[in-house]
Amino acid sequence: MTRRLAVTLIALVMIGCNKSKEPYHGKSIDLSFEEKRTFGQPDSLSESTIHYAREARLGPNGNIYVADAGVSKIKVYSPSGKFVNSFGKRGRGPGEFTGIRGFAVTDSTVLAWDQDLQRMTVFGLDGKLRDMHNFEGVVSPMRIYPMKNSYLIFHAENRNPNKIKKTRLAHIYPSESTKQIADFLTINDVEENIEYISRMLLVGYGNILIQNNQQFVFVPYIYNGNLYQYSKTAEGWQQTRVFEGLNQQTPYSLVEEGDKRKADASISAVDLAKDREFVIHNLTKGLFKYNGYIFHFVLSDISNSRVFGVEIYDKNVSPVGFAPIKSIPITDKEGNFIDWTVEAVDKKGNFYFLQETDKGRKIRVLSLTESDWEKLGELSP
Predict the structure, then answer these.
(1) Which of 282, 280, 281, 279 shows the shortest CA–CA distance to 296?
(2) Where are the alpha helices (H) located in 103-196, listed in sequence order?
């Protein structure tokens, strides 16, 4: 581990010790999350296999588009999960990729960011190449969110260790240009006093809920118990509200000698008298709005065990409760949890989970039952 990240971890642990609330105490909800279908299962003989998906997005026609960086292709599946087609391939020419690290689908296009080539490639929904844009100097992953006549794109502004806390993560670009209209949301805005550990935000960022073309809610990758609202004001894009989330527990802890928990990372002895290991307690895994509720999917530690679940808020971001998703077999084993995310929700309330297996990745579709919705209605403020 590098010295920069080691210093980062020390800072986070010091700040994290200030939080100690038991997560979701008195706010637990029993919801079923019924499985509808699964697709993309590992099968080396089939083109439908998902090898190493970076992201998955829903298209306007109900199809599911998956950026499979493992084979440098965009794969398309029908609403029922049947493989439709794929486009793109490994290479450096037009419509080709060497390292897909960003992905989005609009009403008419598919955008794929190649971090290695510093290039955004634009396809039609049918896979035909439309355009390419070079983003010189951007050497980090992207999270791309279409807005009216523009894109909200999260990427690291720079990696200078002396300027991390002032690094701006959010950028507004016109639809047809790589010239920024605005850049804002510094790491210090959401991780005050722990700017060094926030190097993780330079690659992980977090999750976004677009409320309208002038407002969105942001949760940092390392979920610190807050949801941040940003709005376009007369002075530009600014943080306008901070909502307290349901989970206020310490986001990290050190692993002491004799502890049974597997460490998620280690701190190099270059900076300490001895190596130190730590466990991540809170990670954001997806943020969506559906049927008047906000669903914030999280990976949390509850009673010293790892749990994948969802925090539920009403439209005003008032807490309703937390529901563990019992059918997701998260364990405390090392490396069992990092890449599991919730990618989308469709018009029928189906949530699309991107799950990792020992052979590859797959899409799992879950939804709430009618009785679940009735239960939420009874609990809403």
Answers:
(1) 282
(2) 187-190
User: Per the structure block, which two tokens stand in for 243?
Assistant: 């909502």
- 221 falls in which pLDDT band (50, 70, 90)? confident
- What is the dihedral angle through the alpha carbons of 85, 45, 354, 53, rounded to the nearest 10 degrees? -70
Q: How far apart are CA 336 and CA 341, in angstroms?
A: 12
d(CA 114, CA 123): 14
Beta carbons within 10 angstroms of residue 171's beta carbon: 21
pLDDT for position 6:
40
The pTM score is: 0.89
- Tokens in use for 284? 């954001």
Summarised one tens digit per residue, pLDDT across range 134-166 is 998 888 999 999 998 899 999 988 666 567 778
* Alpha-carbon gap, residue 368 to 288, rounded angstroms: 14
Task: Give the pairing type, strands 265-267 and 276-280.
Answer: antiparallel
Number of domains in the chain: 1
Whole-angstrom Cα distance, residue 310 to residue 284?
Answer: 10
Q: Give pLDDT, residue 270.
A: 47
Distance CA 153, CA 141 (A): 10
Domain that holds residue 312: 3-379
Distance CA 92, CA 98 (A): 7
Tokens 């997701």 sit on residue: 328
